[in-house]
Amino acid sequence: MGWVYLILGIIAEVLGSTSMKISEGFTKLIPSIMIFVFYGLSLILVTLSLKSIEVGVAYAIWAGLGVAIITFISIFLFQESFNLMKAISILLIIAGVIGLNLSGEKSKPETQLHHVKMEREA
């Protein structure tokens, strides 16, 4: 379920970033409100994903994919510039996300938290 929360959190973050552009500097009421709604929802969902995904991996995926997706949206929806450097940078972000997933240790966060609590008691 953690991965579902993370994907939904990424979608909410992208909608929040898109709302920022549409709000035109907080001059449009509904998109301005939606910025806070979507970012709040994104933080809730990403936090829920941390029950089963390591924070470093979840945050890297959330931030990296969010940047890549919003870059594509800015190019295709808002006709912003696109060049070779942007393309290479997006590919490097995607490669980094794949690398994190392939190298991540499959440990249970509950065990890690228990270990931290035990160290504090000592």
Automatic annotation (TrEMBL):
Parts of the chain that traverse the membrane: 32-50, 57-78, 84-102
Provenance organism: Bacillus salipaludis
Signal peptide as annotated in the record: none
Entry keyword Transport: yes
UniProt-listed InterPro entries: EmrE-like, Small_drug/metabolite_transptr, Small_multidrug_res
Protein name: DMT family transporter
Localization per Swiss-Prot or TrEMBL: Cell membrane
Family of the protein in this entry: Belongs to the drug/metabolite transporter (DMT) superfamily. Small multidrug resistance (SMR) (TC 2.A.7.1) family.
